[in-house]
Design a protein that fits this description.
Number of helices: 11
Shape: globular
Order of helices and strands: EEHHHHHHEEEEEEEHEEHHHH
Largest sheet: 7 strands, mixed
Distance between the termini: 40 Å
Amino acid sequence: MLKYAPRSEGCHTEPVDFSFSEQEQAVADLSRQILGDLSTPERHKHLEAEGTTHDDDVWGELSDAGLVGVSLPDKCGGGGLGFLATCLMLEEIGRTTARVPFLAPVAAMAVAEFSPSHPCLQGMADGSVLVSPALVEVGRDPGDPSVAAAETDDGWTLSGTKEMVPFADQADCLLVTASAGDKVGLFLVDKAASEIEVVLQETTSGLVEGKVVLADAPAERLGEDSGPVEWLVQRCTAALSAVAVGVVSEALRITAAYTSEREQFGRPIATFQAVGQRVGDAYIDTEAIRLTALQACWRLDQGLEASTEVAVAKYWAADGGQRVANAAQHLHGGMGVDRDYPLWRYYVWAKHLELSLGGATAQLLRIGDALAADTA
């Protein structure tokens, strides 16, 4: 248990406890057990040989254990915990590169937050109803969409195109950001509507994404202003950083084991100075990714302002994540790209996470804007 007690003359501040709660630790432990047992390299090879893109068995086990809905309210069958609990599960998904719709629990949290009586929440909590965030448009910030929302006598309709919607083939409904007059809104749409077309997009990671074309698709608005959009974008960005923690941590563990066993000139290559320095740098990057992701997830969990912290976490996940992935590949040599060896999956996942919802440059621009606003 980590505790910090600042010392100053005449100050009697109580120690600050930085450890996870008992429930959060239980979520992390159970997630690691389920995913470690089921989402193995051998399981991945089996799925790849069959051409299967989704691991429904793993998703079913996570759902049955209550982990998919762990952050949803008790009244809809969820676990009643905060955002941080879901992020701890996402870290384990990254650690095992499990082929499951890991942003669905985050999108479900947005539905619970802004439409707490929605009839689909029960299914979202037990994993039977998948909701996927549709946030990306080429060349545009997630908070400035070109998809247009029009109000009608029966509600709202959406028209436009979203790209790179995660697990678009499996999703039952989509959370779409759209411009509504001079404001931006968050809308829930039924993917089965005839006014929606989904075209699957190929990714280097193997994770399924899709282009979604909406032509006056009926939609339900969540909330009344742009607040829900920022709420969802921040949590999806932080969630990607949490997944990155698991990806780089496992890539580093695999690399440390390999360099300790691989011998050259009669001794393990881990004893070579250059190798040790490269692994040391990767360790520093990994810990920076972990700490910044935890800070962002915790602040969001506590309802604190976290826009800059989220950008910092995603910057480290993008920039530091690629350094770790590159170092791991380099230190493995040819083994790193052997598809019978697990490391390549972590490289392609790191690249996928790097670019999702904005890479390092996009995050630096957000941080710069925030700093400029503070000093104005």
